[in-house]
Amino acid sequence: MANVLYINSSVRTSGSLSRQLSSEFISKWKAAHPADNIVERDLATNPVPHLTEEMMGAFFTPAEQRSAEQAQTVKLSDTLVDEVEAADVIVIGAPMYNFSVPSTLKAYIDHIARAGRTFKYGPTGAEGLLKDKKVVVFTASGGVYSEGPASGFDFLATYLRAVLGFLGITDISFIRAEGVAMGEQAVADTLAKSRKSIDEIVAA
Question: How many domains is the chain partitioned into structurally?
């Protein structure tokens, strides 16, 4: 039995291809792995707060020295980190907004990138502490950014690879619904390609 963490960050609760495809993935995963535990977190309907000075102060205060107020301040972040630590597979719905991730997903990552919890510094530098996890990212974009002249604008994939890699996660697959503003055939083609990728990952 594996633990699967399913995170959605699209602000659209309907008409979102990242939601649609990631939901299809979860449904097929459940069918193939009925004993697995699925934890869902929707950052649009239940967003996490952006970092504040008080939060940062609480993060860097040893747990045994935190005030009651500081302990309450880090409670949500601790819960989010606990979920990530427990997950064997992490599924992220991350549409491209202005060439990068939604701000809700960035805020979420700010809560789970915690020194001493998900990474640490040692004599040789930083070490990610989230090992042996698989991440599948579902992203959607109006244009094509995985290749071609606009590839330099893809700060979504480069950011997620960098930050997740920093935390110790290197097994990352991107399933892209791209070029969806380029006509009905482009949408049909990218959905077919995405669904083929879903089947391959689920069956692996």
Answer: 1
